[in-house]
Amino acid sequence: MIVWINGTHGVGKTTTSALVQELLPDSRVFDAEKVGGVLMDITPGLPETDNFQHWDPWRPLVVEFARRVLGYVGGTLVMPMTVLVEDYWREISDGLAAYSIPVRHFVLHADADTLRARIDGDTVMGPSWFRHAYVEPYLEAARNWLHADAEVIDTTGITPADAARRIADSVRAGGS
User: Fold this and answer.
1) Residue 136 Cα distances to 3, 79, 81, 130, angstroms
2) What domain of life (predicted)?
3) Whole-number Cα distances in Å, 133 to 10, 69, 155
4) DSSP string, 127-146
5) pLDDT tens digit string along 58-110?
6) Scanning 4, 36, 79, 130, which has its CA 20 to 30 A from the CA of 91?
7) DSSP 8-state secondary structure symbol assigned to residue 124
8) Over residues 30-57, mean pLDDT
9) Cα–Cα dist 21/155, whole Å
10) The 3-state secondary structure of 39-90, one letter per residue
């Protein structure tokens, strides 16, 4: 199974994913961003873009990597990854479904003011123009498709540990 933790940059996916992994036996974290990093290392480079998700190979490579890892070690992959383009999400989720890999899709949500404050107050990465640039696209995706496609965890007033417990409890209960 895959537990996909979606939401915009800076909402707490990486922190929450590590905590979810601690709560779900036989699980491991796979950050699909690393697939993008591999693609960025190809030289001479791929076409210029502001986001590696726009490169056509990224999405099927994420599917293939996840499939191969699950086939090798089994268990659950916890995948923290922002996907705000509906067509990209459909390509990934349909690709995983073609291999009969169940996906539990969660979205970590916070209101715009909370998101901006978290981005500006991040003591590890510091304020990030990249993260700020995705607040509005996230809110648009949330209104148009994303929240309807996933289990939404509002993180505005809770800790990452609380969010992780909610995700793990939902996964263990088998709900959607």
Assistant:
1) 25, 23, 17, 12
2) Bacteria
3) 11, 32, 20
4) S-HHHHHTHHHHHHHIIIII
5) 999 999 999 999 999 999 999 999 999 999 999 999 999 999 999 999 999 99
6) 130
7) T
8) 89
9) 18
10) HHCCCCCCCCCCCHHHCCCHHHHHHHHHHHHHHHHCCEEEEECCCCCHHHHH
Q: Write the pLDDT tens digit of every residue in 141-169.
A: 999 999 999 999 999 999 999 999 999 99
- Which residues, other chains included, contact 48 with Cβ-Cβ below 8 Å and sequence gap of 6+? none
Residue 109 amino acid letter: H
By the 8 A CB rule, do 21 and 78 touch?
yes
Radius of gyration of the chain (CA): 16
The single-letter DSSP state of residue 12 is: S
pTM of the model: 0.94
Dihedral-angle region of residue 29 (phi above 0 means left; psi in -120 to 50 means alpha; beta otherwise): beta
The two tokens of residue 153 are 């965890």
Delineate the domains of the chain, giving CATH numbers in brackets: 2-173 (3.40.50.300)
**Weakest mean pLDDT among 5-19, 106-120, 125-139:** 125-139
Contact 86, 131 (CB under 8 A): no
| Residues 67 and 102: beta-carbon distance below 8 Å | no
